[in-house]
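Chapter review: from sequence to fold.
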Amino acid sequence: MTSDERNQATGLGGGVWDALKRGGDSLAQAARRLAQVQRLQSQMQRLRARRRDTLQTIGEQVYALHGRGRVRNRDVLQNCEALDQIACQLADLHRQVEELREQARRPASTQEPLDDSFLTDDDFDEEMEIAEPADAEQVDVETHDEQEFAADEETYSSQDQPESDERQEHEDDEHERGWDDEGD
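The token string follows.
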């Protein structure tokens, strides 16, 4: 190798080293920028959370003033009244959920008759006609449920039997072939 070739190879090697060094510097700068962006985004998230909490606090304070009759601004008053309506709807839904849970806790035989306080005296005769078929229908449903339960029990017990017979046949085959676990 001649000295020119050596100088050229050294120059190439130095050029590669310089390129790697520049790439490493670029990579380090990119990593620093990424870390800085993440720090700034984290600060933005904290500020957004503080803003959201402050707005919620202001809203709660304004709604408390509405409860005392001290809100006069029409727009704010409309929003407070909308919150009142939502609160009523939530209370009604909560009551319905509690009624359903209470019904689920009581056995079917102890459930109370439906509230008929909305009926007037004129509707009393109709109430009696409606109540009798409903009671008779409930007995049929209970009888049907008992029959269905008995049929289900029979089905499940008959399904279990062939499986155990098949398992026994399989175990007998393994025993005859000498594959059973006890022979090991």
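Two observations follow directly from the output. The chain has three helices and no strands. The first helix runs from residue 3 to 67.
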